[in-house]
Amino acid sequence: MKYTLYIILLVILTGGCREPEVQPTGPALLVNPNMESYEEVTKTISAALNGFEVSLSEDVFTTYSIVVIERGMIRGINHPPELGRDLGRPSRFQLILDGTDCVIVDEQSGVHWPLTNVECVKEN
Fold it and tell me: Rounded CA gap, 2 and 21, in Å?
C-alpha cells in the first residue's frame, strides 16, 4: 500500500515535467511588411495554386488574416471564355501564428506553408 502511494505520487510529479506541444495560437497579421515579405507571400500563394500567377495588394495580411483568391476567366483564341458563371469555390488562405512561426494555411486542404522572411503578431 505504501509503495503504491509513492508510485502514484511519482507519476503525478513527473507527468508535469513534459514540454508542452506548440499549438497554433490563431490568426495573425504581418508586422513591418516590406517588399521582401510581400514577394514571399505572393510566391507562397502562387505555389499553393499550382504556380498560377496571383496579384495581391501590397498590404496583404496587414489588416485581415484571410485572403480570398477568385478564379479568373481564361481568355484567348485557344481558350475562349466559358459561358455562364464559374461556380468553382474561391481559394481561401489564412495567415496564422504557430508558436513563433508565421504560416499560411490553405483553408480547403489544410496544407501549411511556413514563411521565413516575415514577422507577424496574433490578430486581435
Answer: 34
**Three-state DSSP class for residue 124:** coil
- Phi, psi angle pair for 63, to nearest 5°: -115, -40
Name every residue whose Cβ is closer than 8 Å to that of residue 100 and which is 6 or more positions away in sequence. Answer: none
Q: Exposed, middle or buried, 76 (CB in 10 Å: 0-12/13-18/19+)? A: exposed
Whether the pLDDT of residue 79 is over 90: the answer is: no
Query: What's the CA gap between 32 and 11, in Å, rounded?
Result: 46
DSSP SS3 for 7: helix
- Tell me: pLDDT of 63 over 90: yes
Please state, in angstroms and rounded to a whole number, the distance separating the CA atoms of residues 73 and 78. Answer: 13
pLDDT band at 81 (very low <50, low <70, confident <90, very high): low
